[in-house]
Amino acid sequence: MRVVNFQTVSILSLTAFIAMESAWHAPTAFCQESLGSHENKSANTSKKYELVWSDEFDQEGPPDPKNWTFEYGFERNEELQWYQPENASCENGKLVITAKRERVMNPFFVAGTKNWKKNRQHAEYTSACITTRGLHSWTFGRIEVRARIDARKGLWPAIWTVGESGNWPDAGEIDIMEYYQGKLLANACWSSGKRWKATWDSARIPLSDFGGATWATEFHTWRMDWDEERIELFVNDSLLNTIELSQTVGKHDNLSSPFHQPHYLLLNLAIGGTNGGDPSKTEFPATFEVDYVRVYQSTFDK
């Protein structure tokens, strides 16, 4: 995933914005393709953590405005959905992000423009993306999310973070979970030294390694353990990917690691776009359900 939000980020020039859109999400470097290659042990087994922030989604109605803001409209990756707040709600102790096949007007439509966010008069799908940006962010620690994804064609749920300082990808991105086109992903990216081009460390594991489509009908726990030296990404305590932060420092004009700064969290359900696949034969609505989000830090991290 990545973040360019007219509502919550600084305005980029149109030229730079178009260049950035064309370069976005291509996790190919350092890519691993099977679960078996990731069944090594965590390096952070001795750390003790304490809870510093959480949302259990126990209230009914919209997500807590003290914890979350919303993205709005077309956002990234030439995705098909229009993001809007009404597609996210708390129900029966869970956050439910609902993707719908429905037509909505694009108020930013400009006939003849090459800007993909403005050249579509309508969106044919709606969904939601919620973020802690501007409200809560963390450096190091553990982020744990219990969630249930929808693994049908064209759907692209994600749990991810972005650094507060700098443009993408210089700010750094951590994909605690992404799913699309039959694979579960655990990624991180940072600057390649070329504008809007990222270096990726990516694990892409076929859903069949976990048990196939029935696995996605259940809730699972995704976790990131993050310290000064590395990021470890898990599902149900199985280690999927380890990103050594030494590879992100001192290269490509990165004087310090983008992962040595506060990151904010995003939860979203995208549709189609550069990676999501074709949703045309998928029955809607589709949902991405989150039971809780919990953030822990060790005494040293605080």
TrEMBL record:
Its EC number is 3.2.1.73. CDD domains: GH16_laminarinase_like (cd08023). Pfam families: Glyco_hydro_16 (PF00722). GO terms for molecular function: licheninase activity. Keywords: Glycosidase, Hydrolase, Signal. Residues 21-301 form the GH16 domain. Gene3D superfamilies: 2.60.120.200. Residues 1-25 form the signal peptide. GO terms for biological process: carbohydrate metabolic process. InterPro entries: Beta-glucanase-like (IPR000757), ConA-like_dom_sf (IPR013320), Glycosyl_Hydrlase_16 (IPR050546). Belongs to the glycosyl hydrolase 16 family. This is Beta-glucanase.
